[in-house]
Write a structure and sequence with these properties.
This protein is an alpha/beta fold. The chain has a domain of about 80 residues: Nucleotidyltransferase, domain 5, CATH 3.30.420.270. It is about 35% helix and about 15% strand. The chain has 4 helices and 5 strands; from the N terminus they run H-E-E-E-H-E-H-E-H. A 5-stranded mixed sheet has the order 3-2-1-4-5, with no helix packed on it.
């Protein structure tokens, strides 16, 4: 006795479902894309009273080429969110500046900080070999907010 149609059944019509076999690949590629293109904030802002300036220039540097040095009213100095004693600023900045010669150091000091303390910090930066130092002001802060 012979088997009719060789034992196989023929499909009738087409499959109308959405193929989901590549969904995991698409989700993985999107995850990688967002991980690569996301920029994470590397430092937290300090609550300082910004100094006033009559004129200001916008810094046209890449974010990775700017090192923020925060000087709080109490006299504490923060570099990369780490408290640094004033006499050790040059020891901290020298290796960072050696790795990136395009580095711009932005001093962000409270308006109540004395000039003597700013001068000590500037001398430490000079000792570290820093060439490009800027002073951040309230006007610059407003320009940065408007740009965002």
């Amino acid at each position: 006795m012979a088997i009719k149609d060789s034992g196989f059944k023929k499909k009738q019509g087409s499959d109308s479902g959405i193929p989901t076999s590549s969904m995991a690949d698409i989700a993985f590629l999107l995850l990688i894309f967002f991980m690569v293109t996301t920029v994470f904030r590397t430092e937290k802002t300090r609550q300082i009273e910004w100094t006033e300036a009559e004129s200001s220039q916008k810094l046209e540097e890449k974010r990775r080429d700017i090192l923020h040095v925060w000087i709080e009213r109490s006299g504490e100095v923060y570099i990369n969110d780490q408290l640094v004693p004033i006499d050790q600023i040059s020891d901290v900045i020298r290796p960072i500046y050696g790795d990136n010669r395009q580095l711009v150091i932005a001093l962000r000091g409270d308006a109540q900080v004395s000039y003597d303390q700013i001068n000590l910090i500037a001398e430490e930066l000079q000792e570290a070999g820093s060439v490009r130092v800027t002073f951040a002001t309230r006007m610059e802060q407003r320009a940065n907010r408007a740009r965002r």
